[in-house]
Every structure is written in C-alpha cells, then in structure tokens.
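With this grant's support, we have settled on a layout for protein records. One resulting record is reproduced below.
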Amino acid sequence: MPNREVLIAAVFNAETFKDFLCYLLEHTEGRIFLILDNIRYHKAKDLKEFFFKNRDCLTRVFLPPYSPYLNLIERIWRITRRQVTHNRYFESIDELEAALSSHFAKWEEPNDTLRVLCAKIYIT
C-alpha cells in the first residue's frame, strides 16, 4: 500500500497552503499541475513570489468561478456529510475524527465509489 500523507490544520490559509506546496515539492519528482478552485488563499498575493520562484515545477490551473460540478472535492464532501455527519451528534472532536478517519480509510485504495465520483463530470 502506498504511503499517504494528510494535512490537518486548524485554519487553512495562504500559509498552510504554502506549507502543503513545499511538502509537495520536496516529495514529488517532476512537474506538478495543481487543479484549484478560486478560494482566496489559492491566489494570495503573499504566494506570488513563491509561485514565480517555482514556476518550472508548479503550474496552477484554476477552475472557472462558480463551477462546483467541476470540483471533485465537492462530491466527496457531499457523500461524507450524507454518510458520516448528517443528523448525527458526536460527543467529542475525537469521536468525529474517528468517524471521518474510518470513512476516508475506505478510499485509500482505488475502488468503484471513487471511480464513479471522479468519472461524472458533465460539461455542457
């Protein structure tokens, strides 16, 4: 089974995004193409110099604004809410984290659910 890393942060902003990008650069060979939505920290002015310095390694491709149907993570969040958190009370953050970890563990290897989620992009 391949080694997988997860970034967990209390806040996601330009700084944590840069930390993630530095991790990618350190652990990935070759050119990296990032498919990004238009959340503010993906285009932060503080990262302009970083992207310029790493332009030979990192290429950003932005999804069109207001296009959740192209953003695959939106499907993952929808299924996760439906299967894990919808109408459910968790006694603690640890209990919530355990439920989410169990849910995402099902997707550590390619499977039919992931294939279907990633295959259904309709552009009209």
About this structure: The mean pLDDT is 86. DSSP finds five helices and two strands in the chain. The CA atoms of residues 64 and 116 lie 22 Å apart.
